[in-house]
Amino acid sequence: MTTNQSCLPVEVRTAVYRRAVAQGYISACEHYGLSVSASLDEVQMTIAFELEGYYVRKYGPETGMDMACTMLSEMVKPDVLVAAPKLTRMGESMMDELLCGHLVTASQTTLH
Length: 112
Fold this sequence. Notes:
Elements: H1 10-31, H2 40-59, H3 61-75, H4 89-100, H5 103-111
Helix pairs in contact: 1-2, 1-3, 2-3
């Protein structure tokens, strides 16, 4: 039983957040001057297979999808429905680990 009270199915919410995280990742890379060798669709597929797949394999389809959706929602800033998607610090770290290994280093360099 899911505790989320949304009228949208978890698969739809997850797809929306997956796209927002992917777009936020590509935008962050561009902001930091990093080239992205993957397309938006390729980034989304990596998120689906690696991040979402991990939770589904570990906790089963229903609970796993709820957990993946929650994780993805925490990876983008909360104004995602009214502004261009931007990753949170946690989102940058997770996407860096998942995809390129350079995003966090670049963001830390920018902050100094």
